[in-house]
């Protein structure tokens, strides 16, 4: 049964709509939905006073339409609604670009850290190989002081003679260098892990912002409904 066929008088329906707007229980979507139910509610929900109150509630930072204004409050609401929506979409695009820029920066840093880590690991590999070789030479030097077969002794003597630096000092320096390499790699891996987490957080934030382009809209206006049918109803209603 429509409102036109109900036992409630027109004035009571008008008061219901006014109370709904004043108590913030009704928004522009509710008025649009009511307008397509019957002729009576279509006429009542088009009342300028309702849309003027809704304008003041949804856009408190803007001057509400005056009673002497020749343009209907519904039309002014539509214009302001579309402007605010466009501003929100522009802010959303800027937010997306900013987050994408952050992701690119994180990606660049990760690439640099991975390259440095690879270089340090290569350096550590060479250092370990040199350290093992020096330890073999030191063992050969010690072995020269005991009796050995001449063939073995000749090889060990050759190894010792090919080393032109003090073995113990060089081993100590290599061990310090190896320790430094390990510290560098650990620091890079820790920083790399933190940077990857930051990039993942930025990606999740980007996905959320892209999925909810108007979520941060701090107005009383409900998020824009992109459904084609509702948009058509709204446009047809405020014409």
UniProtKB/TrEMBL annotation:
Regions annotated as coiled coil: 171-205
Keywords: Coiled coil
Domain of life from the UniProt record: Eukaryota
Gene Ontology cellular-component annotations: nucleus; plasma membrane
InterPro entries linked: F-box-like_dom_sf, F-box_dom
Domain spans labelled F-box: 7-55
Name of the protein in its database record: F-box family protein
Naturally occurring in which organism (per UniProt): Solanum tuberosum (Potato)
């Amino acid at each position: 049964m429509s409102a036109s066929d109900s036992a409630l008088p027109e004035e009571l329906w008008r008061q219901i709509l006014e109370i709904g707007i004043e108590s913030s229980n009704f928004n522009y979507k509710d008025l649009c939905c009511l307008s397509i139910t019957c002729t009576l509610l279509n006429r009542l929900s088009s009342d300028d006073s309702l849309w003027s109150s809704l304008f003041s509630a949804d856009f408190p930072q803007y001057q509400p339409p005056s009673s002497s204004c020749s343009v209907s409050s519904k039309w002014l609401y539509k214009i302001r609604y579309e402007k605010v929506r466009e501003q929100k979409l522009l802010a959303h695009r800027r937010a997306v670009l900013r987050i994408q820029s952050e992701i690119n920066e994180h990606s660049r840093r990760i690439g640099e850290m991975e390259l440095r880590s690879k270089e340090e690991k290569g350096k550590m590999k060479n250092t370990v190989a040199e350290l093992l070789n020096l330890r073999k030479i030191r063992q050969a030097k010690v072995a020269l002081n005991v009796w050995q077969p001449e063939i073995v002794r000749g090889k060990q003597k050759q190894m010792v003679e090919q080393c032109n630096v003090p073995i113990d000092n060089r081993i100590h320096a290599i061990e310090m260098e190896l320790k430094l390499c390990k510290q560098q790699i650990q620091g890079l891996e820790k920083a790399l892990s933190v940077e990857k987490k930051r990039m993942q957080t930025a990606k999740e934030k980007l996905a959320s912002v892209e999925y909810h382009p108007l979520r941060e809209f701090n107005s009383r206006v409900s998020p824009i409904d992109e459904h084609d049918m509702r948009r058509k109803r709204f446009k047809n209603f405020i014409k």
